[in-house]
Amino acid sequence: MQKPANPAVSTPKPAAKPATPADLFAFLDRLGIPHPTVEHQPLFTVEESQALRGTIPGGHTKNLFLKDKKSALFLVVALEDAQIALNSLHRTLGASGRVSFGSAEQMLEILGVTPGSVTPFAALNDTDCRITVILDAAMMQHDVLNYHPLTNTMSTTIARDGLVKFLRATGHEPQIVQISGGNPDGNSGPFAV
Question: What is the pTM (predicted TM-score) of this model?
Fold first, then answer.
């Protein structure tokens, strides 16, 4: 005979299903943030994006999902052509030791997206606020910016101030920091381009 389940013992909750583009658009609508979106074939690299985006106005971007030696996680968002000195970025971020790219498994678990679809909009899925969002100051000079809306088959244009409002509404206070450009320690180490 099987014992009845003990109601005092909690069972693990299944992982929340990641937000869809429709969920994201509904969230932006509730915040009163316009979000014109264009559908296109899947894009995985900046080069593919440049070739297919047509005349979408605003700053076009790239996103780096990074972790430090103590597994602190960062989402660094910059213009697509920004040169970022990965070998010294940890100092700018206040990270524990040098940073490296986070795994695809962690990306899916925390941000709910796969490589090629990384976006600041994925903060919607990070309900525990495990990611620190870093916005490059050079990117924030643009009035409007473009990101994938949780999938790389679309591009969504959002006002700079709308992006900040969105991130704050998800519980992520964005840090706007100068991260692109020259290497502050004068070394010519690897750059993310």
Answer: 0.81
Q: Which helix (H) or strand (E) holds 144?
A: strand 144-147
Residue 8 lies in a domain: no
Q: How many domains does the chain have?
A: 1
Separation of alpha carbons 179 and 184, rounded Å: 10
Q: Which residues of 54-93 are buried (b: 16+ CB within 10 A; e: fewer)?
A: eebebbbbbbbbbbbeeebbbbbbbbbebebbbebbbebb
Is 167 inside any structural domain? Answer: yes
What's the pLDDT tens digit per position in 56-69? 788 989 999 999 99
Among the listed ranges 4-13, 54-63, 97-106, 109-118, which one has the minimum average pLDDT value? 4-13
User: Under DSSP, is residue 49 helix (H, G, I), strand (E, B) or coil?
Assistant: helix
Q: What is the CATH number of the domain that holds 39?
A: 3.90.960.10
Q: Which of 3, 142, 130, 137 is nearest to 60 (CA)?
A: 142
Domain membership of residue 2 (yes or no) is: no
Task: State the average pLDDT over residues 32-61.
Answer: 76
